[in-house]
Amino acid sequence: MNAYRYYRCCVGWPQDDVYVEGGLSDMIDAIETTTRRTLLAHVNRADLAAIERDLSYDTHPSQGLTMAGDWHVHYFRSVLHGERVYGFQHSAIEHVFTLQT
């Protein structure tokens, strides 16, 4: 199975793809809550680990707060331009993974 790769977060989203049909706004409206386990089953782990480092999460609970232990993080699946995407919301920012060929 191909792993979904990190695409981008909503903060850096191209302005011309926010309010178009199937774009960011529609993707957010179509979000279905899922689990971290589901996210991990589909996304590239190295991509996710890099984002976790960028967000200053620790890699193990004995070191401090991990993303897995942060109850403020919400995991989701949705549709972007007709294609399944996975991601998570952190501080009201959507981080999106797409299937890249």
- Bin the helical content: 10-25%
Strand proportion = 25-35%
Overall domain count: 1
User: How many beta-strand elements?
Assistant: 5
- What is the end-to-end distance? 12 Å
Q: Helix-strand pattern, N to C?
A: EHEHHEEE
| Low confidence ranges | none
Structural class by sheet pairing and helices: alpha+beta
The value of Rg in angstroms is 13 Å
Largest sheet: 5 strands, antiparallel
**Overall 3D form:** globular
Average pLDDT rating: 96
Strand order of the largest sheet: 1-5-4-3-2
- Helix run count: 3
Summarize this entry quickly:
This protein is α+β, with helices and mostly antiparallel strands.
Q: Which features would summarize this protein structure in a list?
A:
5 strands; alpha+beta; 101 residues; 23% helix; 3 helices; 29% strand; 5-stranded antiparallel sheet; single chain
